[in-house]
Design a protein that fits this description.
The protein has about 100 residues and is mostly helical. The protein has 3 helices and 2 strands. The longest helix is centred in the N-terminal third of the chain and has 19 residues, at about 20-40. The protein is elongated and about 60 Å long.
């Protein structure tokens, strides 16, 4: 009969909810879901979920989205990128 330490290492007993990677992916999905909800995009990402690959690495599955949603996300990313590149008016930096 296997000892307790052997049973703990048995891959047949492994569960994704016992891993740090699973919780990291789940927390990232929660953060992303909050932002999407604030932007009114919660219905546009019906397949959003946390996942692990076969190696136990955490991933975020955004799922399928409509072309309109992809365009809206692209525009939000463009706006965010422009905001990061443009210094605030009270900043001492000069635009590059």
């Amino acid at each position: 009969m296997p000892s307790d330490s052997q049973r703990e290492r048995d891959s047949a007993l492994w569960s994704p909810i016992d891993s740090h990677e699973w919780y990291a992916a789940r927390n990232a999905v929660t953060s992303l879901r909050r932002i999407l909800t604030a932007l009114g995009l919660e219905r546009d990402f019906p397949f959003l979920r946390a996942d692990l690959n076969a190696f136990g690495h955490g991933y975020i599955d955004l799922g399928r989205i409509s072309p309109e949603t992809a365009e809206r996300v692209a525009e939000l990313l463009r706006l965010g990128t422009a905001a990061v590149r443009t210094p605030a008016p009270d900043s001492e930096e000069t635009p590059k």
